[in-house]
Amino acid sequence: MKFTDGYWQLRPGVTARYATSVADVDVADDRFTLYAPVTRVRHRGDTLNGPLVTVEAWSPAEGVIGVRLWHHGGRRPRTPRFPLATDPDGGPAKTVREGPTVELVSGALSLKAGTEGPCTLEFRSGGKVITSLGPRDLGFVTDADDRHHMLARMSLGVGETVYGLGERFTPFTKNGQSIDIWQADGGTNSEQAYKNVPFHLSNRGYGVFVNHPGKVSYEIASENVGRVQFSVEDQSLEFFVFAGPAPKDVLRRYTGLTGRPALPPDWSFGLWLSTSFTTSYTEETVSRFVAGMTERDIPLSVFHFDCFWMREYQWSDFVWDPEVFPDPEGMLSRLKERGLRVCVWINPYIAQKSPLFAEGMAGGYLLKRADGDVWQWDKWQAGMGLVDFTNPAAREWFAAKLRHLLGQGVDAFKTDFGERVPTEDVVWFDGSDPERMHNYYTQLYNETVFDLLVEERGEGEAVVFARSATAGGQRMPVHWGGDCESTFEAMAESLRGGLSLGLSGFGFWSHDIGGFEGTPPPAVFKRWVQFGLLSSHSRLHGSKSYRVPWDFGEEAVEVTRDFTRLKHRLMPYLFHAAVEAKESGTPVMRAMLLEFPEDPATHTLDRQYMLGADLLVAPVFSEDGTVEYYVPEGIWTDVLTGKRVSGPGWRRERHGFRTLPLLARPGSVIPFGAVDDGPRYDWADGVTLHVYPGGADGSETVTTVPARSGAPAAVFTIRRSGGETVVETDSDLAWNVVVVGAAPADDARAHPAGALYQAPPGTHRLVVPAAGG
């Protein structure tokens, strides 16, 4: 929210008060508190009739410093609040007072404040200032409507760029943007967002989380081009600064505080096929789609039933439409016999025509108005009410309906909606503040469903397909990008949103392959298939038209087949990246900045990404197959063609529909599984290690092939020395090595990628001679 009119003036009706000096300071071993008047104090009389801004600093975990400022501290605590964890392994913070300054030190991060003169805060890491707040950067503002806002402004350095703030489809770097953290159902081509997260990441090696679940207004190099300003309509404001130095370190610390993603089940990484939204479908339609995929040799892992599995005007009542699906248990059993998992669409809105409306009203499970009536409107479903998840009994009631579906054979839920949550004339069961609940509602909704899946299916088998989220929502994967059009432009919008979400702590992300609104031209569909199957999760879904590949031509079938099978072979690699997301908060799909923070050319790239640590993906966004992408330093190898590409530099290429730039990092080792007809198999049995050129002599690479639990199933150490490649492992299973681009030696055979060396079961060491390397 903007309060100033240029540099010199305030907007009409605005009054601003800033912490101008420090009148007193309290210092403890692990924190300090500043008392800052908002006017110049020349004598004792100036201490009368004027407010103080109180500023407290502490550390919840190593490398993390929290700051809380407030004007009036007498307000009762508001709920909901983000649940935050402290790092049990983090060292204690210490406070040092020296002369006219006080400094709080937490690992590599420190906060220095002046105790005499102007009120200033200076964050340091690695011996240098990373950001600061000056005398006009902490305070409170009242606007023309007498609303009270707390605000903070943090400095931006020359060349500093800002990322994150949730899944945002606006430009990737947020500099110059005004952003409100406020859940909205706005599609992928607007400034609104389904997933709003009050966390931003800087390319200068730090991140900032505003600990407020309601509306947070950001001005990012917009109102003041040298500052990031954030404000809340409240009497207090709390934020945390996370040290780097690398962006991955920032995400590790941030997700350590707000939660790390659960590990999704292996089957969820396969291809999902949907009925689409308003299309006509019956069991015969579903069977035809599934059989069509089998006939065309396209492996399918999950079948999804969208909204109309239930009767119209009754969403959500969780009852199969008896006219369309007279035998749901039998149908689900028949799908299971084909090896498929089943997902069904749900949302937390209860239509008035549904019997559940009266049931929920009688039980007190629906959100109420101040006069005790159920809150209702006619958008989406006629007379719908909203499940009040702040009521534990309502959560159990809602979960019980889903538990019945799990008993029928459903495996996962698409938890749609959760954004349009009212704030006027509503009373939550637990007394939560309506403004704070608007964004937070999705957390309780997804948590209710995810916890049920963990309870019924066990950890590692629970997965939702969620649209809305806020900070901490990353704990409950997977999330998808919402309603996009069926164009190249919308495909690029979706990628921007996914990269932005990944830089906000979310490890797993998907999108509607082919686009949601409209019917994609065959070129768009085929290019989106490539992109979709080189994403963490992959779903074919549309609105008014089907997304079965044969509707877009025979070549679309071939592209879908090839890239589905490629993804299955990459499961040892992809699941290892998934384990990294679970353990450190690093997303599976990574903005180039995450892997190459020292290369400034990567800091604005939003049309390419790293899939895991070692695969560069550059989707094609053009009708004629032309693609421009940036290659960081070193010799990269195209996984699909074997072509070498040297960086640093930009490339301009033209690709047919069977290829796109998919490059292996210099010196990387990519494990390929032995099975391509599904994601669930023993990835270590028969694994083939593709050793790519570019590794320095004397270098050592450790490659871990995970088990389904995420624990290591096999660990390989690859050393390059004097032209030889030496591979050692603890695995007793059969495994192979391909030295990419090399001609086979006497003890190897030809392979499309190079020279193949086979290690029978029980082989723990293999030497690839220089002649083969």
TrEMBL record:
Domain Glycoside hydrolase family 31 TIM barrel: 261-576
Alphabetic keyword roster: Glycosidase, Hydrolase
Domain Glycosyl hydrolase family 31 C-terminal: 585-670
Coiled coil: none
SUPFAM superfamilies on file: (Trans)glycosidases (SSF51445), Galactose mutarotase-like (SSF74650), Glycosyl hydrolase domain (SSF51011), Putative glucosidase YicI, C-terminal domain (SSF117125)
Location of the Glycoside hydrolase family 31 N-terminal domain: 59-218
Family (UniProt): Belongs to the glycosyl hydrolase 31 family.
Protein known as: Alpha-xylosidase
Organism the protein comes from: Streptomyces cuspidosporus
